[in-house]
Amino acid sequence: MKLMQTVSAAVLVMLGSAAGLAQERGGSGIAPSSASEPTEDPVELGGALSKLERSSAAALATGGKRRKSMEMLDGAHRLAAILKDAGYPGGAERFRRMSQARHMVQIGRPSNAVGILRDDARRSLGSGTSTTRKQIEQADSGKLVIDLEGREVGRIESIDLSTREVIEKKGGVLNLFGFWDYGNRLQRRQPRCFVPGKEYVVDLCSRVGAN
């Protein structure tokens, strides 16, 4: 037991030293904001949800990729929750259908879930403008960040609306196997890159290979 504790302590010291060295060499250690940013938030987010629905439906229909299909379905459910929380037109209805699809799988009726997913993937969010949705604010600091596939990729480190900068910490979240990802790095983002929900914040800029 003492040996394991000693090794664990040594690993943590090494990680801390590496992080400090990286900051010394790279200044603040914060990557600049991405040059490419989303322009049509409702279309982008709604399209990401539809893509996940089609992929999840296809995996469920084969019957051989239950775990993978459920991962995609859970991701779609997170995206739909943000659509609802942020006030996108049609977001509440899409969230209701995602919840229904998950319930169908849980009670052993995956074929019903496939139908719901395929039907919803054909729908659009409506004609609302991006200015109607909720904007990121100080209260969203500390929330988990998901990408456009609904995967947890980091956390909101800090928000400075006076300089119009959001610092996002990539990594540092539990992966599927329960291990912490120590690939933490800080990255600057413009507030318009994010759409906040009650539990998660989605990073719209993650689609341009910023992860």
Automatic annotation (TrEMBL):
Source species: Stakelama marina
Signal peptide (from-to): 1-22
Keyword Signal among UniProt keywords: yes
Region (Disordered): 24-43
UniProt name for this protein: PRC-barrel domain-containing protein
Keywords, in A-Z order: Signal
